[in-house]
Amino acid sequence: MASNTAIMGNLPSGIGICTTIPDILYLPELIFGGLVWILVACTLVVPHNPQGWVMFVSIFCFTMTFIWLVVFAIGWHRNKGLWATADVAYHGIAAFFYLSASVALAKVTLEMDDGTNSRNYKLDVSAVVFSYVATLLYFIHTILSAMRWKSF
To answer: Where is the MARVEL domain (predicted)?
Structure first.
């Protein structure tokens, strides 16, 4: 059961990141972000620009979330107020990036529904769904991190 102590001003470290709110969202963010990355990488990259943006966002957010997870797990966050602010900023930027990537991916996916390549279409539809789920997870993490930040 997740505890409410993270919202009251404590930044967890060690195994505490797996049991506190909003830090419990790191693992689902990594899972859904990784799925977007894998599914988009499996499809034909046409058109290049929107798909390239989706790949950049998914790889960037996956990598940064993993680094963020390691920083909290190891306990490198000494200045709690600064790290709480950075946590809100990062997750807000990630939510915005994922929203823009989700919209671009949905537009490309809708345009490619011509019935010729149903495998790529199905993969892109799955990537769109997972991208919106990742967007929602990052948005919720931003809100909960902002609540924690306000308590400092």
So the answer is: 17-150
